[in-house]
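To whoever picks this up:

The nightly regression suite flagged Rab GTPase as changed. Nothing in the input moved, so I suspect the structure step. Input below, exactly as stored in the fixture:
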Amino acid sequence: MEPPDYNYLFKIFILGDTNSGKTCYLDRLTEDNFTHSKSPTYHDFRINKIIFNDNCSIKLQLWDGNANLRFRTIYSPPYRGTHGIILTYDICDRNSFLNCKNWYIEAKRYINDGIPMIIIGTKLDKVDFDEKKRQVTYDQGKTFAQELGLNFYEISSKYNIGIRQTIMDLIGLIIEDRVSNKNNIQANDNNNNNNNKPKNCTIQ
Ligand SMILES: Nc1nc2c(ncn2[C@@H]2O[C@H](COP(=O)(O)OP(=O)(O)OP(=O)(O)O)[C@@H](O)[C@H]2O)c(=O)[nH]1
Ligand SMILES: [Mg+2]
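Regenerated output under the current build:
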């Protein structure tokens, strides 16, 4: 059997209110594009390969967690085996920020305790020229994330601000988590027996 052409396979969920920019984030990350008019996602996942620390090949299974209540009554997200979570809110929509706590609670309820998580405030470009559009300050987002012990970022999928940093930091946290072996997340590791793992697959 051919050995896998990657060092790690990570399953990552992106969660947050409808309209918080989850699909646009994934579009930018996986296809490097942005489209303004989007319909609500039913459920979706994508595969993406990314190089971490120069020569560590990571295969990402990115799940676009649907937020629409209509869909959620007939479809429960396949959280099993998740390695990392991205919580999102729209910095121009205070309700989506307030609801972020509920998404955090949902993640904690269904996903292994201690799984690496980050929080992103989206649509940073919208406040570039008009700060009045902002409904959540940077400090509010940061404080909220700190209270939960999570990394915090403000990003723009439209202008490609912060996208790469967020995913790289999350991958770093997941690898760190594996190294410290806090979570039993070996199930999706297709590389358990690979002795040729590049040394850059470790955190430096
Ligand atoms: N200006 C700006 N608009 C954005 C950005 N990201 C998303 N949007 C807009 O916000 C709307 C919702 O974005 P989506 O990515 O579809 O939101 P979602 O979280 O996937 O929504 P659901 O699929 O319903 O859960 C769309 O009209 C996007 O064009 C951004 O970085 N900047
Ligand atoms: Mg969507």
